Amino acid sequence: MASQSQGIQQLLQAEKRAAEKVADARKRKARRLKQAKEEAQMEVEQYRREREQEFQSKQQAAMGSQGNLSAEVEQATRSQVQGMQGCQQRNRERVLAQLLGMVCEVRPQVHPNYRIAA
After folding, report:
1. What's the number of CA atoms in the CB half-sphere (13 Å) around residue 56?
2. How far is 54 from 45, CA to CA, in rounded Å?
3. Residue/partner pairs of 113-118 with CB below 8 Å, 24 or more apart
4. Integer Cα distance of 106 and 59 in angstroms
5. Which site in 18, 34, 94, 113 is 20 to 30 Å from 100, CA atoms measured?
6. Mean pLDDT, rounded, for 1-24
7. Angle CA(72)–CA(75)–CA(79) in degrees, nearest 5?
8. pLDDT score for 118
9. What is the rounded CA–CA span in Å between residue 28 and residue 33?
10. What residue spans carry the Polar residues bias annotation (predicted)?
11. Distance separating alpha carbons of residues 55 and 48, to the nearest angstrom
């Protein structure tokens, strides 16, 4: 009986050690999975940053040329508007004089399409 009880104790101790080993292995596996997940997340973030930086540089190159073109068009528009305003200022008095002359000088005439009824 003592040998059976000693055998049972040994089996229980062996089962306890096996359970501890299994629990330890599960903990190590969980740690490795967590570490692998963190490493993968860091790689994804690094890749995303690289692609974002590449996109920004391409966008800046494309927009830089368009921005320069836009500035040139805006400058040309400003110069044209200034030219028109200068022309308007120079011709303002002459045009006003012509308009007032046409309105104030009434010359009575028979219209060419008027037919005298007989």
Report:
1. 6
2. 14
3. none
4. 66
5. 113
6. 88
7. 140
8. 62
9. 9
10. 57-69
11. 10
Q: What is the DSSP string of the chain?
A: -HHHHHHHHHHHHHHHHHHHHHHHHHHHHHHHHHHHHHHHHHHHHHHHHHHHHHHHHHHHHHHHHHHHHHHHHHHHHHHHHHHHHHHHHHHHHHHHHHHHHHHH-------TT-----
- SS3 of 1, please? coil
* CA gap 57, 61 in Å, rounded: 6
DSSP string covering 59-84, please? HHHHHHHHHHHHHHHHHHHHHHHHHH
Tokens of 27: 């903990």
